[in-house]
């Protein structure tokens, strides 16, 4: 055998070896992966919640690079005292501020929150037992729902709703029961307002039964912007009392209410403190959603369940963020209710932007539902193209942020241009994805 033949055989042998190893590997890999897939599939209780509107929209935005009006967060600076506080906290001499803090809420923050909400709801709140701070209002919702929903408990959810309510209820073994806000009568000669959408009182009553454990209220509502009136809240409260039902009140937009509407905390209605857990968010309060700091307040006996979920899932929140937020509240507390207070000036600013956005949406041919509060506008864009019926959720403050406000004509021209562009394939695909 020549040296060359030997070499070729060696190579072939090598190849065969590789081939065999390769095939064996692939074979066992295939078995292995299907076994892995079977055993490690998403647990059944999470089925159906794989898709998230936020994940999908952010992906679409990065793919098509449109003017992104799809997610509600401010792109103007938060109040300077808040960012200054964070900088000072981060670089200050107290290095212990970078260590774990009290699990149920950083002492300085729960003290400030207790002071604030004691004034707002007209009863003394105990900072140790009646407040828990969380990783955003998201975690507040999660700990509150998980801590109270048992297998088979019915939870009433008012549509349209913040998307995580439904999966959270299901994860906890609960049964979501939906009731829509309906347009109370045909609107003529003006734009519809979020106040035109109401719960049918009889339909609401029919939702309650002995299995009903919780109703989730969101006022101002995301995405409609509805601010529930006192009459509407009294009706919900009466049914909660009649059927011994807990109210989880998501009030993250409590300060984002446009005149003449008024935010009413359902916990303040007679007999409701003892059956209400109210959720708030520093992100929405101070326009700094990236801080992901939230809280729940309510009666101590109901807070115990929340404390348990929180201590066994996240244990404690972010210390420097909580310290800085506490300084933020301490800054606002003495000027609460005055024009200098951020909680008064911010909604005034956003109201102008709401009006501007409503106008340009109407100008381009959509039919916006004028929101009474919150970050969002729902607009019916079907008049733009009768073949496409869809709703577009627009974040007011993203559209007309402070820096863009001066350039509003330019911005409007850009939007008009985009809307009037002939539909490219890409755009068609985009529309299709949103519809599906
Ligand atoms: C109605 C509602 N609840 C809760 C949250 C979550 O707030 P956070 O960012 O504090 O987790 C949001 C955020 O958009 C919201 O719109």
UniProtKB/TrEMBL annotation:
GO terms for cellular component: mitochondrion. Keywords: Aminotransferase, Lyase, Pyridoxal phosphate, Transferase. CDD domains: AAT_like. InterPro entries: Aminotransferase_I/II_large (IPR004839), Kynurenine-oxoglutarate_AT (IPR051326), PyrdxlP-dep_Trfase (IPR015424), PyrdxlP-dep_Trfase_major (IPR015421), PyrdxlP-dep_Trfase_small (IPR015422). Residues 66-399 form the Aminotransferase class I/classII large domain. It comes from the Eukaryota. It catalyses: an S-substituted L-cysteine + H2O = a thiol + pyruvate + NH4(+). Its cofactor is pyridoxal 5'-phosphate. GO terms for molecular function: cysteine-S-conjugate beta-lyase activity; kynurenine-oxoglutarate transaminase activity; pyridoxal phosphate binding. One of its GO terms (biological process) is kynurenine metabolic process. Pathway: Amino-acid degradation; L-kynurenine degradation; kynurenate from L-kynurenine: step 1/2. Homodimer. Belongs to the class-I pyridoxal-phosphate-dependent aminotransferase family. This is Aminotransferase class I/classII large domain-containing protein. The lineage of its organism: Eukaryota, Metazoa, Ecdysozoa, Arthropoda, Hexapoda.
């Amino acid at each position: 055998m020549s040296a060359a033949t030997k070499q070729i055989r060696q190579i072939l042998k090598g190849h065969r070896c590789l081939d065999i190893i390769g095939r064996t590997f692939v074979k066992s890999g295939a078995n292995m992966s299907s076994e892995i897939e079977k055993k490690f599939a998403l647990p059944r209780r999470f089925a159906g919640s794989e898709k998230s509107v936020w994940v999908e929209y952010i992906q679409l935005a990065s793919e098509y690079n449109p003017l992104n009006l799809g997610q509600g967060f401010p792109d103007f600076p938060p109040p300077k005292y808040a960012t200054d506080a964070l900088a000072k906290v981060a670089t200050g001499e107290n290095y212990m501020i970078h260590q774990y803090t009290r699990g149920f809420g950083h002492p300085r923050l729960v003290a400030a929150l207790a002071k604030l909400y004691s004034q707002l709801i007209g009863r003394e709140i105990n900072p140790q037992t009646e407040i828990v701070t969380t990783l955003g209002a998201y975690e507040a919702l999660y700990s509150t729902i998980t801590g109270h929903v048992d297998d088979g408990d019915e939870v009433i959810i008012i549509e349209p709703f913040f998307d995580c309510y439904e999966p959270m209820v299901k994860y906890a073994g609960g049964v979501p029961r939906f009731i829509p806000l309906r347009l109370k009568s045909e609107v003529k000669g003006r734009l519809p307002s979020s106040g035109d959408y109401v719960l049918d009182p009889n339909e609401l009553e029919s939702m309650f039964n002995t299995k009903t454990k919780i109703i989730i209220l969101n006022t101002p509502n995301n995405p409609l912007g509805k601010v529930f009136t006192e009459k509407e809240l009294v009706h919900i409260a009466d049914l909660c009392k009649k059927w011994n039902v807990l109210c989880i009140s998501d009030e993250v937009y409590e300060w984002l209410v446009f005149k003449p509407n008024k935010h009413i905390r359902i916990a303040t209605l007679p007999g409701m403190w003892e059956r209400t857990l109210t959720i708030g968010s520093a992100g929405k309060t101070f326009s700094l959603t990236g801080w992901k700091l939230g809280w729940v307040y309510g009666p101590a006996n109901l807070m115990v369940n929340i404390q348990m979920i929180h201590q066994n899932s996240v244990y404690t929140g972010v210390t420097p963020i909580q310290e800085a937020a506490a300084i933020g509240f301490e800054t606002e507390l003495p000027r609460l209710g005055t024009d200098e207070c951020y909680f008064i000036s911010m909604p005034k600013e956003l109201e102008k932007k709401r009006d501007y956005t409503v106008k340009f949406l109407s100008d381009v041919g959509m039919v916006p539902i004028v929101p009474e509060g919150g970050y969002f506008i729902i607009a019916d864009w079907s008049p733009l193209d009768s073949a496409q019926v869809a709703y577009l959720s627009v974040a007011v403050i993203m559209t007309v942020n402070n820096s863009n406000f001066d350039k509003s004509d330019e911005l409007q021209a850009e939007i008009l241009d985009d809307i009037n562009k002939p539909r490219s394939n890409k755009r068609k695909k985009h529309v299709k994805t949103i519809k599906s």
